[in-house]
Design brief:
heterotrimer, A mainly alpha (270), B mainly alpha (283), C alpha/beta (364), B: 283 residues, mainly alpha, globular, C: 364 residues, alpha/beta, 35% helix, 26% strand
């Protein structure tokens, strides 16, 4: 127990060093950083286009007012942005770590392999999604005459963090497939498309899809349930209390999958 | 002053057919390349099914309270639009921009300079191989599953279907030419991940795939008619649904193919510019 | 009292299941739906022990199982069967504790952060390996002296030449002063000066810290300059394990005499000598392996002979009697030739008897 704590402290201390190391890399490519930040932000704004164009024509979606859907959409960007700070390594895990053999190097260092992979890069520019999402949420809240209480802000922060953990867990879990299947692109793309599901009220989908998004790939717990709770909508209220539990369970499952994958890797080597 | 002397060097002139053979080889490589990854194949089919499903439910919810057509679309029409749109996308989509980016990072792109073929032609040939693969193994099964699961209307007429196919081929070329332009950006920029993502959303939106362009505010529709993107999905799908007169259809097809030529030419120029820079930096 | 070996490997095997890729479009289509596998025995029942301070060369053709062995020794791979103890650890069972006690350099891949100055990598590695500032400073000073790192440290790693990068990589692998160092092709692609630099450094480290070194290489000069002991592996099994000197003794078959003729008038006499060559061979056996004369140029000749069957002094006497020679030299068959014969199975391994291990540190 004490050993685990010391180990944790060691990794926590090194997190700062890893961040500093990556910051140095980014500073050496300043131009690239700004271009990347600008294009990412453009991408985020384009992705909002669908909702805004759609609501030009229709006032409500399954009893959700346009501003409420926009609030949900905006909120969904916040945990996603937090997750995206670390997502690059997960997307590229199959290509650079497994296929190009960088993972051998990871195993030769006296640190947790998961730690080294997740914190090898910090895409700080992904925080633009948090910013854009925040602006959209504030805009929608104003149109809804939303009264922000301290509790709401605390809850929003907590939900956003849990959502980030859920995204991280799902995509980490998917990355572990690279231990079994060699492919540069990996298994992520369809799930990346699944994200779109979570950005609209779950009530528009059939019950199968609602079940899928709650209990199989719990994106609903990252976006819809928290946003419903924040908006004070009646449907699915009990689910909000489960959010931290789902995040913890998803993370535990992903870490277990990683361990199994690690064992597989060390018995095949590629 | 000595006049420049010309020597009658033996010039090896490859027959045009031999040139085609080289590209055919790249088409084959593109095809086999995708075949090598079965995971990508299975996830590909699932991706398309997911997308059709998401937009199916969204549109159904949109029309739930509607009393008549919205922006000239009835519910069956819009559901067909979405389904046919994603089936079409499974054909025209390719990832040569991403592959070019990988090759720039690996330094493999240098090998392209020494191949005695047009680099653009080579990448397009690879994309063609990829699309041929998609057509047979991705588009066809996706189309079958989607038509079984969702209410898809048949094309307006045989002629409409034929013209839709012609437009779909144009979609492929516009997409391929655009991706070549984006991929070439990897040479000066090295990391084009964000650029690819921005292009992704721009095209999903302005191609009319996610939402027909006549849902857009008027000024954006006007702006869009001066851009190539709407010919990727909106034009072929309008033709499929028979929402245009024959004259209008033919006019749009002509505009689409004008854009094919223009984008290929632009890509050609951009490649020359981007690679000139590389030699200055000495690689 | 004999010291316990630092690394001991017993009956180690590693088998893979590999996927058989079918060729062509049709084959590719079939691959989508059905796959066939085959078992590859990358390493098959190898045994060895390495003592503290030894420098061992591990050689073999591509795909012989060298990298697989190194990966098992470094804890990356778990063997299919067999046992291994390295520095008191079972590598794959106590990975993080074990890797703190080893240094690894892959010649083709760097462990340094590519885009930033090498010194930044050193600073982070110091923290990763918990090296105290004092030890760090002391070692960096040694590395600076022997490897001349000073002018390299502030350059982004991607701008370093291969040789410069290798110097930095070696220093990075040794920052935590590991008792064991694994090197996978440390001199691959380097020029002569850079190779020499690396070898000198390895000798210095071995001398100063008694670091045990296991290196794989295709460059036999590495072995001749660094290792007293050599292990040859092919198709997953160890073919030879022992001192380099014994390898020569045991498998050296041919020697060669190079001689330079005094003047151009010797041609006729040389032809006569060549004609009489079969008579010099024992029992008139003049097969190519026993005696062979080649003309390297107008004046230079090379006579190869089987050292077991023909005595060199006899041969020299005969040459001197037959032609007028300005200069001559006797050489052993190059070590490459010996190893090539071992790989091809020509050298009779059955005649080789493993002798008791010589585990004294090599500090030449």
């Amino acid at each position: 127990m004490k050993e685990a704590f010391i180990n944790f402290k060691r990794h926590a201390a090194l997190l700062g060093s890893y961040f500093a190391q990556y910051a140095k890399v980014r500073v050496s490519y300043r131009g690239d950083f700004f271009i990347s930040a600008a294009t990412s932000m453009t991408a985020t704004i384009f992705s909002l286009g669908f909702v805004f164009v759609l609501f030009e024509r229709v006032p409500t979606l399954a009893n959700w007012r346009m501003e409420e859907v926009v609030f949900l959409y905006g909120f969904s960007l916040i945990p996603f942005g937090l997750f995206n700070v670390f997502s690059l390594n997960l997307y590229e895990f199959g290509a650079t770590y497994i296929m190009e053999g960088k993972f051998d190097r990871v195993l030769l260092r006296p640190l947790s392999s998961l730690f080294q992979v997740v914190f090898d890069a910090f895409r700080i520019e992904a925080l633009q999604e948090v910013v854009v999402g925040g602006i959209v949420v504030v805009w929608a809240a104003r149109r809804l005459h939303y009264h922000w209480h301290l509790v709401d802000i605390v809850l929003l922060t907590l939900f956003a963090l849990c959502g980030g953990v859920i995204y991280l867990s799902v995509f980490l879990f998917l990355s572990t497939f690279s231990f079994w299947f060699e492919d540069r692109i990996g298994i992520h793309p369809p799930f990346w498309n699944l994200l779109a599901f979570g950005r609209y009220p779950l009530s528009i989908y059939s019950s199968y899809i609602q079940f899928l998004l709650s209990w199989i790939i719990p994106f609903g717990f990252a976006t819809f349930y928290p946003a419903s709770r924040l908006l004070g909508r009646p449907e699915f209220r009990v689910y909000a209390a489960l959010i931290p539990l789902v995040a913890a369970a998803a993370f535990a499952l992903a870490v277990t999958a990683w361990r199994v994958g690690l064992r597989r890797y060390s018995s095949t080597g590629s | 002053m000595a006049a420049a002397q010309t020597f009658p060097l033996p010039v090896h002139k490859p027959s045009p057919l031999a040139g085609l053979k080289v590209y055919a080889e790249f088409v084959r490589i593109g095809f086999v390349n995708i075949l090598a990854f079965r995971l990508r194949y299975y996830t590909g089919i699932i991706t398309y099914l997911i997308n059709v499903t998401v937009y199916f439910f969204i549109w159904r919810a949109v029309f739930a309270n509607a009393t008549g057509p919205i922006a000239g679309f009835s519910l069956p029409q819009i559901l067909t639009y979405v389904s046919a749109g994603w089936i079409l996308r499974s054909f025209y989509w390719n990832t040569i921009d991403q592959e070019m980016a990988y090759e720039v990072i690996d330094g493999k792109i240098a090998m392209d300079f020494i191949k005695p073929v047009s680099v653009q032609g080579m990448w397009l040939a690879r994309a063609m191989g990829e699309s041929a693969f998609r057509l047979i193994l991705l588009t066809a099964p996706t189309a079958i599953i989607v038509t079984l699961l969702f209410p898809v209307l048949p094309p307006a007429s045989k002629l409409n279907f034929a013209l839709f196919l012609a437009a779909a081929i144009g979609s492929f070329f516009i997409m391929g030419a655009l991706n070549f332009i984006i991929g070439t950006c990897a040479i000066p920029l090295t990391s084009i991940l964000a650029l690819i993502r921005a292009k992704f959303w721009l095209i999903e939106l302005l191609s009319g795939l996610l939402i027909p362009l006549n849902f857009f505010p008027r000024p954006i529709q006007v702006l869009s008619s001066w851009l190539p993107f709407e010919h990727i999905a909106y034009t072929p799908l309008q033709i499929y649904l028979g929402r245009l007169s024959l004259a209008e259809t033919l006019r749009l097809l002509a505009v689409e193919y004008f854009w094919v030529a223009a984008l290929l030419f632009l890509g050609h120029l951009w490649w020359i510019r981007a690679t000139r820079k590389i030699t200055i930096h000495g690689g | 009292m004999p010291e316990a070996p630092l690394i001991s490997v017993h009956a180690l095997s590693k088998h893979y299941r590999s996927f058989k890729r079918r060729e062509g479009i049709l084959g590719g289509l079939r691959n989508l739906f059905h796959r066939e596998y085959q078992t590859v025995k990358a390493v098959e029942n190898i045994n060895f022990e390495i003592g503290r301070g030894e420098m061992v060369g591990y050689i073999g053709p591509n795909g012989a199982g060298k990298s697989t062995t190194i990966k098992m020794l470094t804890g990356i791979l778990v063997p299919t069967s067999g046992e291994m103890l390295s520095n008191g650890f079972v590598p794959w069972r106590q990975r993080t504790a074990y890797v703190k006690t080893i240094g690894v350099v892959f010649g083709q891949r760097t462990q340094l952060w590519w885009d930033i100055a090498a010194i930044e990598s050193f600073k982070l590695l110091r923290r990763i390996y918990d090296v105290s500032q004092r030890d760090y400073d002391e070692r960096m000073e040694l590395f600076n002296q022997v490897l001349g790192l000073t002018e390299l440290l502030d350059v982004p790693v991607r701008k370093l030449s291969l040789g410069q990068r290798m110097r930095c990589d070696l220093a990075a692998a040794l920052l935590h002063n590991p008792p064991i160092l694994f090197l996978d092709e440390p001199t691959i692609g380097l020029d002569v000066v850079a190779k020499d630099h690396i070898r000198q450094f390895l000798r210095a480290i071995n001398e100063r810290y008694k670091t045990t070194v296991l290196l794989t290489t295709h460059d036999l000069d590495d072995i001749e300059e660094l290792c007293r002991r050599i292990m040859i592996i092919d198709r997953g099994t160890v073919l030879y394990d022992g001192p380099l000197s014994r390898l020569k003794e045991q498998f050296l078959r041919t020697k060669q005499i190079k001689f330079i003729l005094r003047d151009g008038d010797q041609s006729a006499r040389l032809a006569a000598f060549e004609h009489n060559l079969p008579a010099l061979a024992p029992n008139g056996d003049s097969s190519a392996a026993t005696l062979r004369l080649e003309r390297l140029d107008e004046m230079t000749c090379r006579l190869r002979f089987d050292r077991a069957r023909v005595s060199s002094s006899d041969l020299i006497r005969q040459i001197l009697a037959a032609v007028d020679v300005r200069d001559f030299v006797i050489e052993d068959e190059p070590i490459e030739e010996i190893i090539k014969r071992i790989y091809s199975g020509e050298a009779e391994m059955s005649s080789y008897q493993p002798v008791e291990k010589d585990s004294s540190p090599v500090t030449r």
